[in-house]
Design goal:
The chain is mainly beta. It contains five helices and 29 strands. It has two domains: 100 residues, no CATH class; 279 residues, YVTN repeat-like/Quinoprotein amine dehydrogenase (Methylamine Dehydrogenase, Chain H, 7 Propeller). The strands form eight sheets. A four-stranded antiparallel sheet has the order 3-4-5-6, with no helix packed on it. Strands 7-8-9-10 form a four-stranded antiparallel sheet, with no helix packed on it. A four-stranded antiparallel sheet has the order 11-12-13-14, with no helix packed on it. The longest helix is centred in the N-terminal third of the chain and has 22 residues. It is globular.
Amino acid sequence: MKLKCKSYFILLFISCICIMIVVGSPLFADTEAKVDFEKQILPIFQNSCFSCHSASKVEGNGSVSKPKGGVQLDSVKGIKESLYGEVIVAAEPEDSLLYQRITLSENENGIMPPLGTGKPLTKPETDLIRKWIEEGANYGDWVGIQIQQTHQIDVIPHNPTVMPPITTLAFTNDGKYVVAGSQVGLQVYEWSTLSLKRTISVTPRNIHDLAFSPDNKWLAVGGGNPSVEGIVEILSWQEGVSHSILKGHLDSVMTVTWRDASSIASGSMDRNIILWNVSDGTEIRRLKGHSRGVSSLCFMQDKKLLISTGIDQNVRVWDVTTGELIRSMNNHTHTVHNLALRPNATSLPMIASVSDDRTVRLWQPTIGRMVKFARLNVVPLNLVWLNDGSKVVTSCIDGSVRMIDPDSVEITDEIVGIEGWAYSLNIHPTDSSIAIGGENGQIKRIIIK
């Protein structure tokens, strides 16, 4: 009897030790523990991202290296300012461009790290990044690389090798000039020669959209500071001086569009749309309904209906007279960057939109119907219609321009544009030539035949 008891206690002791070992193993680690950025996420960034996505710096030979695609990942400040704050969207992994890129399949364009530069991230690594973003993308005490001003800055020439990207382009109504917006302010070019005529300083540090009033008297500048404030600045075009500043948004203004010569609508990353009285700077109406930031706006021809879209993938139709949300259309599966109304429509009004889901979609917003779509092999960033409405023109992340027949939704032409991402695109008001702009301050004039 005593022997049996002794054996029993020995077995019990061994069992307890085994349980302690198993429970203490990684397989049984606390799955609810918060992800530690510096210990778990930062090493992934260092091994797979920093070689291409670090801050601009002067090399030993005097050249300047810049972060690829304008995306900087080696500091919190750089991450938050890259690509309108969409690289990492706290609590929203599906809306975060970083997570979208690292989870693409190996044969898809745009996968990060790119093929040939490193191995794709493993599923445990992408799952860990997803969990960290879902938890709010907390960086802890890490702030990243802090660039200090030193005498070395003197070696950078007056016209630096690296220029900020052109984020928006707007033609004057007579087509004589095109205005480019970037972090250096506004640059005005004569269209026929693309010669720089003047530079205009503006209040917003980050500029996202430009729009001339119907009478060409005013130029609206949309921008602001991410997560701080959104700004719409109204400039007197002839003098190039500030007339008024419209403040009411709590995040960057991404899009502006005139309703008439005295009122304008603005859409912001704060999810709101505001209709403004430009004469006295007052807010006429605020439209709420988007669950994520608003990226693009356009009025229908009657100016009573406003179409909006954004990061929440929805295309929404509003009655601006009453502020009522009439309908939402949700066929897109990723962030929508831009939309435009088809000119000279002979039947129901039609708009086109472009998205990170690599599609150009055609809609009839007055009846709430998606008509058809074209699928591209790269992500389109912007679009316009030819003046006669016969083609949709898109600019893409590979810097090229693609033309799409809206009836057959076939790509009819592919034109070499610029190097890198082509963020901005606009069409001349009369001759159907187009302006394309993007990385490193590039602007190109393309004649459509």
